[in-house]
């Protein structure tokens, strides 16, 4: 089956104009930090964390790194600004890139890997 450019554009337009994504989450346009701040204000920490993961295209982290992001976002309180979220996110990604929260010993790695209280589902 062939699809024309016009049909493809229409399909994409219809897909992004819906009120929710395929998981039923509201589609929030704009910078990730604005969306994450709004999600934190609504009490959805997991979705706010997912915005950060998606922003930096990170799909697999150590639990300790996820815990660090959770702590940074939680410390912002119930009414964070997008600027606060952006700063926390920048601090987190700098820490991830420098292995700040990565397990250092084989024992820490095994303990982290065996955890089952995953903050977010692992992507494949």
Structural write-up:
The mean pLDDT is 82. This protein has helices at residues 5-17, 32-41, 45-55, 63-74, 82-97, 106-114. With 124 residues, it is mainly alpha-helical. It has 6 helices and no strands. Helix 2 (32-41) packs antiparallel against helix 3. The protein has a domain at 30-114.
Distance between the termini: 29 Å
Overall radius of gyration: 17 Å
Major sheet: size, sense and barrel closure?
none
Rounded average pLDDT: 82
- Provide the succession of SSEs: HHHHHH
Helix content: 55-70%
Strand share of the residues? under 5%
Number of strands: 0
Number of helical stretches of at least 4 residues: 6
Structural class comes to mainly alpha
Outline:
With 124 residues, the chain is mostly helical. The protein has helices at residues 5-17, 32-41, 45-55, 63-74, 82-97, 106-114.
Protein traits:
124 residues, 57% helix, 0% strand, extended
Task: Provide the fold topology.
Layout: H1 5-17, H2 32-41, H3 45-55, H4 63-74, H5 82-97, H6 106-114
Helix pairs in contact: 2-3, 2-5, 3-4, 4-5
């Amino acid at each position: 089956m062939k699809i024309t450019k016009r049909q493809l554009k229409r399909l994409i337009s219809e897909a992004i104009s819906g009120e929710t994504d395929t998981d039923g989450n509201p589609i929030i346009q704009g910078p990730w930090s604005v969306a994450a701040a709004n999600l934190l204000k609504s009490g959805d920490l997991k979705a706010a964390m997912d915005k950060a993961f998606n922003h930096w295209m990170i799909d697999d982290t150590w639990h300790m790194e996820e815990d660090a992001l959770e702590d940074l976002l939680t410390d912002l309180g119930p009414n964070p600004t997008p600027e606060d979220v952006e700063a926390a996110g920048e601090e987190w990604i700098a820490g991830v890139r420098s292995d700040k929260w990565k397990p250092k010993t084989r024992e820490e790695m095994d303990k982290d890997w065996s955890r089952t209280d995953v903050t977010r589902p692992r992507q494949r």
